[in-house]
Recover the amino acids of this structure.
């Protein structure tokens, strides 16, 4: 049994079958990549995990509990964090405040009325947030207005926010898109390091094959809403069906 | 120096606010009594009380609108609830405001909880419309069905036949705080100047300082941070494990309580309560105040409230006689022309002046009067421009204090 079990998931948007009969099992503490051409349904699948979409049929179980019908914040509090394809950050706030919000959510839960405490006195939270920013190489940008960050930095910030929650399952939707090569390599190293340091399962969607093959332990290939194959990176590389459907000349 | 859990900078800021508030009766009376400019003096009790009361109303509204971005068009309903509560306490107990005011905060909080619970199921324009609908409903109910409680069109007031069970033999028969009668003033004549120190103003001013301090603490708290995050990106907040609804509801209730307190204080200054206090124009006014002053900043609501109330009371007072006095030294044709032109902007037309100013501020100073102040301060400091909206960056050094 994997920590995330997806069985027979279907999702239709009007006339478009975005997901058809998807089965997927992500093993605990593994790094599982989901790849596939544009429009294959990868993001749609993640949306079904985090409460953004409810599949038409099928089940999604996390750690033995169904995720269907739960609200996004409940799912997050169960230990699932997500980095979105287009960065979702608090653009009116500073980089530091962005990360601190995650730390508060992790410590205090979905709601806590604390109108008379002072953010500046929360030394634990500040320390933790600073450490997270150090991890993603953004410590020097802590007081910047996050709206003014580059696309790659926004992504790294979002990653820091997710990691600050110490999730059991981290979902990454194209975490290196829009990053310079050096930052992409930093991100690869960061994810590797985090996996070594603590128990965490990661599901990553990625178009950059360099990233996929440097990180993934297992790969699922999705095409037109259906998983084509699931295997180890070595086997996927040479798989004829995959080459045909997706990888083409890129490998 | 650090006081009351505030940073050094916030402490300084609070002390400045305290000083300005307490010195208002002097500061707003800059012109000698008999000079032509005496019209612009605003240091009389009625108006100063209104500054403080609407300041409280706007400070509370800013906690909801400025921080979370939820734009309520129905906060006047809580103003009315507060007023009715206080007058009822006069009728049942006695004229001591100590019973009514806390209760006004509680009842308006309960109303805000109910209205907020329903309205916050929607966001954006639908939320605004829902709050507006609730407020108009309250207004109409107060006028009609609820007449036994609100005394309908006449408005609620105290009659000799009322119970007033606590009323002592020597107790004042107008609102007071343990004998400190609100309507009493001490006048001080200094040369050509006259200053009026009014009990009611100081009572309201001290409450205003306390609730300003509370709002300062809320701004700096993790709770305040969450509210600002709601304004910026609710989606991210939800996917970060935060249930945004109770946060927004808490902000709604707090701002409703501020409004109830303001309404209660209105009745503490003048023992009357009428349904018109709940009308949508009153709800709209507080929106204007906060936007004009600078939404999401600490000082903005106070500036906005002061600005609008000043215009409402001073510009509307300027009549032909005063105008003639000003332009008397000019040739007749010119003064006649100027008076004709002035008619569009003063007296009954003060709304036009305010409207134009409002438009200018919204177009050229999206951050409101606070932004204007910052720009001026920057000119003097010759510093490179800082963050665009300092109200949103309490870390690492709070800038809101500007
Ligand atoms: N909310 C929606 N409503 C309607 N159609 C949608 C919705 N979300 C996704 N789709 C469609 O479903 C299909 C799958 O989209 P999805 O975003 O999951 O693809 P993807 O594999 O993530 O692609 P990419 O690599 O470009 O991100 C696309 O054709 C998309 O247009
Ligand atoms: Mg996608």
């Amino acid at each position: 049994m994997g920590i995330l079990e997806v069985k027979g998931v279907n999702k239709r948007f009007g006339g478009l079958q975005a997901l058809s009969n998807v089965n997927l099992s992500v093993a605990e503490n593994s790094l599982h990549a989901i790849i596939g051409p544009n429009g294959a349904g990868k993001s749609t699948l993640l949306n079904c995990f985090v409460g953004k979409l409810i599949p038409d049929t099928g089940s999604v179980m996390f750690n033995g509990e169904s995720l269907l019908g739960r609200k996004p914040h409940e799912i997050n509090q169960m230990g699932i964090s997500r980095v979105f394809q287009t960065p979702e950050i608090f653009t009116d706030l500073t980089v530091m405040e962005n990360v601190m919000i995650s730390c508060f959510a992790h410590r205090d839960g979905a709601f806590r009325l604390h109108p008379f405490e002072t953010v500046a006195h929360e030394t634990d939270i500040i320390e933790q947030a600073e450490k997270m920013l150090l991890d993603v190489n953004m410590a020097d940008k802590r007081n910047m207005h996050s709206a003014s960050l580059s696309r790659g930095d926004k992504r790294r910030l979002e990653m820091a926010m997710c990691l600050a929650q110490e999730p059991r399952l981290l979902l990454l939707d194209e975490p290196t898109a829009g990053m310079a090569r050096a930052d992409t390599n930093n991100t690869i190293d960061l994810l590797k390091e985090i996996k070594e340091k603590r128990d965490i399962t990661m599901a990553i969607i990625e178009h950059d094959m360099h990233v996929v093959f440097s990180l993934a332990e297992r790969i699922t290939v999705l095409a037109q809403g259906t998983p084509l194959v699931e295997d180890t990176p070595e086997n996927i590389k040479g798989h004829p069906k995959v080459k045909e459907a997706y990888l083409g000349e890129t490998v | 120096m650090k006081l009351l859990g505030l940073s050094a900078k916030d402490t300084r800021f609070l002390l400045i606010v305290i000083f300005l508030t307490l010195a208002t009766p002097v500061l707003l009376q800059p012109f000698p009594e008999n000079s032509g400019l005496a019209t612009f003096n605003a240091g009389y009790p009625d108006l100063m009380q209104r500054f403080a009361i609407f300041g409280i109303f706007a400070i509370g509204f800013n906690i909801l609108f400025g921080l979370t971005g939820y734009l309520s068009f129905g906060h006047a309903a809580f103003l009315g609830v507060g007023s009715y509560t206080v007058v009822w306490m006069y009728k049942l107990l006695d004229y001591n405001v100590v019973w009514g005011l806390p209760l006004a905060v509680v009842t308006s909080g309960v109303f805000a909880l109910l209205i907020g619970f329903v309205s916050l199921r929607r966001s954006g324009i639908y939320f605004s419309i829902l709050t507006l609908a609730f407020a108009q409903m309250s207004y109409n109910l107060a006028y009609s069905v609820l007449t036994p409680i609100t005394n309908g069109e006449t408005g609620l007031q105290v009659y000799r036949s009322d119970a007033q069970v606590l009323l002592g033999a020597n107790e004042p028969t107008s609102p007071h705080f343990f004998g400190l009668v609100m309507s009493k003033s001490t006048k001080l004549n200094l040369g050509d100047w006259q200053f009026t120190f009014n009990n009611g103003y100081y009572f309201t001013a001290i409450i205003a300082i306390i609730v300003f301090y509370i709002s300062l603490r809320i701004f700096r708290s993790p709770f305040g941070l969450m509210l600002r995050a709601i304004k910026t990106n609710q989606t991210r907040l939800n996917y970060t494990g935060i249930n945004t609804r109770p946060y927004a509801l808490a902000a709604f209730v707090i701002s409703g309580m501020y409004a109830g307190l303001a309404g209660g204080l209105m009745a503490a200054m003048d023992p009357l309560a009428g349904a018109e206090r709940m009308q949508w124009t009153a709800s709209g006014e507080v929106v204007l105040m906060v936007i004009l002053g600078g939404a999401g900043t600490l000082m903005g609501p106070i500036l906005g409230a002061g600005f609008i109330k000043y215009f409402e009371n001073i510009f509307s007072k300027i009549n032909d006689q005063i105008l003639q006095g000003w332009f008397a030294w000019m040739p007749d044709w010119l003064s006649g022309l100027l008076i004709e032109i002035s008619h569009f902007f003063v007296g009954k037309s003060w709304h036009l002046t305010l409207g134009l100013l409002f438009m200018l501020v919204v177009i050229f100073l999206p951050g409101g009067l606070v932004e204007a102040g910052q720009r001026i301060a920057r000119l003097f400091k010759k510093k490179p421009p800082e963050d665009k909206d300092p109200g949103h960056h309490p870390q690492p050094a709070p800038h809101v204090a500007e």
